Amino acid sequence: MEIRPATTADFEDIQQLFKLVDRLHHEALPSLFRPTDEIDRSPDFLADWLADEAGQLWVVEENGRVVAFIYAKFYEQTTHPVLQPHSQVYIHDMVVAEDYQGSGLAQALMDQVVDWAKKKEADALRLQVFEFNQRAQAFYAKQGFTTSSRRMSRPLGKSEGREARGERREAREVDSLLPPRSSAPLPDLVRPEIVAMKPYTPIVPFEVLSAQLGRRPEEIVKLDANENPYGPSPKVQETLARANYLHIYPDPEANELREAISAYTGVPKANLLAGMGADELIDLVLRVVLSPGDGVIDCPPSFGMYPFSTAVNAGQYIPVPRHDDFSLDVAGIEQAVSNHPQAKVLFLCTPNNPDGSLIRDGDLRRLLALPLLVVVDEAYADFVRLPGYESHLAWVQTYENLVVLRTFSKLAGLAGLRVGYGAFPQWLLSHMWKIKQPYNVNVAASMAAVASLQDKMWLAEKTALIVQERERLQKALGTFDFLWPFPSHANFVLCRVLGRSARQLKLALEQEGVFVRYFDKPGVDDCIRVSVGRPSDTDALVKTLSVMSLRDHFVYGNR
Predict the structure, then answer these.
(1) Distance CA 258, CA 274 (A)
(2) 148 phi and psi, to 5 degrees?
(3) % residues pLDDT > 70 (the chain)
(4) What is the CATH number of domain 2-186?
(5) Would you say 400 and 373 are in contact if contact means Cβ atoms under 8 Å apart?
(6) Which of 45, 125, 374, 413 has the most CB atoms around its CB within 10 Å?
(7) Is 294 within 8 Å of 344 (Cβ atoms)?
(8) Does the domain made of 234-454 have the CATH classification 2.30.110.10?
(9) Distance CA 498, CA 295 (A)
(10) Spatial distance between the Cα atoms of 479 and 489, rounded to a whole number of angstroms
(11) DSSP for residue 189
């Protein structure tokens, strides 16, 4: 048995040893390491190890087979503005084959590294061990290593490192190359409203769901994020395939996109601003208007970004809950404005998320008479089919205190590219231009949005299919005695869950690969929201609900 420096001929055996590490990681931490995850130790990666003059890779060979290896690297820091000069040897990896564990190979490899570190005149040895690997932690502890978080360190004594040459400085553990922490309580630097706020709960994408459930993406029925199930127009794919200037920063004014939006909506280009989704525009409005403590009126249950962005911008959140049928409490909003003279903004979502109800034009005019900015979010307006219904985009030309927001996520299937727009009064827009990020809409998103607007036939066809499927979905959900679907003008249907837990229903569907949305919020904590998918998605949902109902698969309990 021989310990020697590695060569390229050893790479295949080293890669086999790393597969042992992959398996142990998955067995110990399955939520972090999937069976398909492999540590990147390609021949090119290992060749980089060999070529690095600061590193050393040793192997233990027996009968022509590598049965163990260790890789360590020397790090020197001599010019840090705060810390004194120091150096360390970091042990990146050590693996011993299963049939050789307990044979003393680990000790022999560690001795090899210690001798090398002495020659390099290092101050300390360092490594990192996962908490689950208690056997490894015990081994290193016997070698004189101490633990800090998951890092383990061993100072080299006076007879081992630079101090053997008379350099009289104390060997010490170096936790990082950053300056030492201040003695001040750093958490106190965080704004109190940020500490107090709750994080927004985003929807998990397909690839993450696939990994969590162990199901292929095509086996998942994703009806939880109100995405367009048909995706973007084929013209979007063709346009992006011809993109020539992705290496150039985008037009900060998004002129081509704003011209296309103007042609599509009839709103003058001068009143339009494009954003990285409507979410960015919500934030921009509040950043322009709010001073700390100014009020923002919201009508929950509604879109969660309104209270989120209010908190981020140090505003005072003023909720005026909707009626039981999700209609607006107009009188309550007027009273809130009277009670809170510092209120500056009112958010209204129509169709409202999560129930799909509309605001009556008469109510909107009444609210526009209030002394504050009214932001109307029309993310789902393209799915309204009421006779005589029209978007409120054109109203911006009439009402100086009105903003109307739209998005390409629902209509055009561009949720992954994050692009939206809004119509704004000039007095507000001039300040929004000043504070927006210069290149907020990326080149791909802008090109895709323009291509979408040029394919009106595709947009109309897919929107009609979604509306048609919405009606079918609503009728199908109404056949279950434990679901009460609300009328909807959006691309989703909200259902009140009767006689059982809405949260448990959501979780039970999830286990079957069907994802719907549950809100742990007042007014909808006994509801699930189901996005409109393709007909096959509706069929899969109904089939799963039917089977679950027959076998009484629900877990009952307090909501």
Answers:
(1) 7
(2) -135, 110
(3) 82
(4) 3.40.630.30
(5) no
(6) 125
(7) yes
(8) no
(9) 36
(10) 20
(11) G
